[in-house]
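Thread: quick sanity check before group meeting

JM: Hey all, I'm pulling together slides for Thursday and realized we never actually wrote out the predicted structure for the chain we discussed last week. Dropping the sequence here so it's in one place. If anyone has concerns about the input, flag it before I start.
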Amino acid sequence: MQQEYSEQGFWDKLKGFALKAGREVVENALLLYYAAKRENTPKWAKTAIFGALAYFISPLDAIPDLTPIVGFSDDLGALAAALAMVSMYIDDSVHAEAASTLKRWFGD
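JM (edit): ok, ran it. Output follows.
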């Protein structure tokens, strides 16, 4: 169970479900991840971020990720709420890192 809450668990889930989850879910997760990696992001913000990312990678969801169409809506909600809370720590460098990863994965 601990593996599901690790950094590797985050990357495994994100890569495995990127196309199915959709660009918006992936972009939100990446923005949060890269914001959390910054040294100047305060501990309270990192706690909110890691809580949302832990929910995202958790195999236990309110709506299972394998459910067609709506499976990632709860994940998107959790990620969007965390983004709203920590938006002041998501600067141009965070956006650039997320955009670079999105371009590699989605090709546009």
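AS: nice. DSSP finds five helices and no strands in the chain. Helices lie at 7-21, 23-37, 43-57, 73-86, 92-106.
JM: adding both to the slides.
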